[in-house]
Amino acid sequence: MSEQATDNGQSADENSIMGLIHEKIHESDSALPFDEFMELALYHPNYGYYTSARKRVGSDGDFITSVSVGQCFGMILAHHFAPIIESMASNSDEVVIVELGAEEGDLAKDMMGTLAKLLNGSIFKRLRYIVVEPFAAKRAMLHSKFISGELDELEVISNFSELSVNNCILIANEVLDAIPVKRVRWNGNEWVEICVSAVKCGEGQRLVEIERNIASSALKKIVKDYPTTLTEGFTIEVNLRFNDFFADIFPAAEILYGCLIDYGLEADEIFDPGRKNGTLRAYSKHGIIDDPLSSPGRIDLTSHVNFDHASSVAKDCGFEVSSITDQYHFLVKSAEPWLLEIEKAGDPDAKNAKLLRQFKMLFHPSVMGKNFKVMEIKKGI
Ligand SMILES: C[S@@+](CC[C@H](N)C(=O)[O-])C[C@H]1O[C@@H](n2cnc3c(N)ncnc32)[C@H](O)[C@@H]1O
Predict the structure, then answer these.
(1) 33: left (phi over 0), alpha (psi -120 to 50) or beta
(2) In CATH, what is the architecture of 73-178+244-271+304-329+369-379?
(3) Angle 305-303-306 from CA coordinates, rounded to 5°
(4) Going by CA atoms, what residue is nearest to atom 24 of ligand 1?
(5) How far is ligand 1, taken at its centre, from the CA of residue 149, in Å?
(6) What's the mean per-residue pLDDT of the chain?
(7) Who contacts 352 (Cβ-Cβ below 8 Å, separation ≥6)?
(8) Structure confidence by residue, pLDDT tens digits, 97-130
(9) Rounded to the nearest 10 degrees, what angle do helices 350-363 and 327-334 cross at?
(10) Inter-residue contact 49 to 103 (CB < 8 Å)
């Protein structure tokens, strides 16, 4: 992808995506709904933040995730999934692990590495690992990285309509928070929708927020139940795309168990006065960018997942939501067999000492244990 500088000091890609956004603003009567802006900024096939070849996740990227903390996360998930895979394998020829948002494939490698040791050979041989990756460039990257040998069990497909399996384990870490959201604001009188517009700035233009009456009936229905005693300016993100997300997954498997892991809130926490400005954040190089509209395509945009909402949408699509647990409780319980093994062995060797340091970061409530939650969904179990 070209990153050449141009006269205004911006890269050609920045100018291209800005041009596209201005066109869309113009087409939408000077007010582009925020979710449409976020979709262009993150997922435009040529200029989107998540479709580019940049390094996003990890210490040399823009943010860390539980996967990038190290092998420990995938190892514990493998311990969590192993008994479920064994039970599924007892009455099926194959079990398929499906991952969404695999980025560079590290979780696949970490989980399969541990599952190869935990499962008996005949079950492991019947295990498939499929990544659902909508973007061609990222599919090609995963192919070139893995099909050459590192993890030759990995298959990559572009969407759930290509999938029809009996037994499925679904895993999505930090995917829900990256799905474009709408934003609404209490103006003291009614809820209005925050859109994106453009104003003159010197020789050029810059993107700004603009408030509009809510047009979408689905959004109107949701805000109807929100409190009206909030302070003026109270801002909330609403994800209307969860419905398509869960509806696409549902028909792909007869029997499914899934873990959707993300940072997020339950409904009452959303109205906490400390969150008056909402949870939309923009990240670059491990720092928060004050203006989320400033560099579309070059910065990450994300918002906390409203787990009550995600759960009710998943149920409407036919799933059972068996629990929403914080990452602390989920990981400590799932890691029990591994922790007992280490305890039995005495002083941890260097490898286990490293994994234990990673484990602490993942489960400790003051690091990732409390803010991250695990939503477990089921179908046909
Ligand atoms: C914050 S990154 C998380 C990456 C990785 N799972 C991790 O934990 O390090 C979000 C990922 O979700 C992907 N994503 C967002 N919506 C998706 C969807 N509907 N289907 C598949 N991937 C999606 C993005 O392309 C990106 O790779």
Answers:
(1) beta
(2) 3-Layer(aba) Sandwich (3.40)
(3) 20
(4) 101
(5) 24
(6) 93
(7) 342, 345
(8) 999 999 999 999 999 999 999 999 999 999 999 9
(9) 150
(10) no
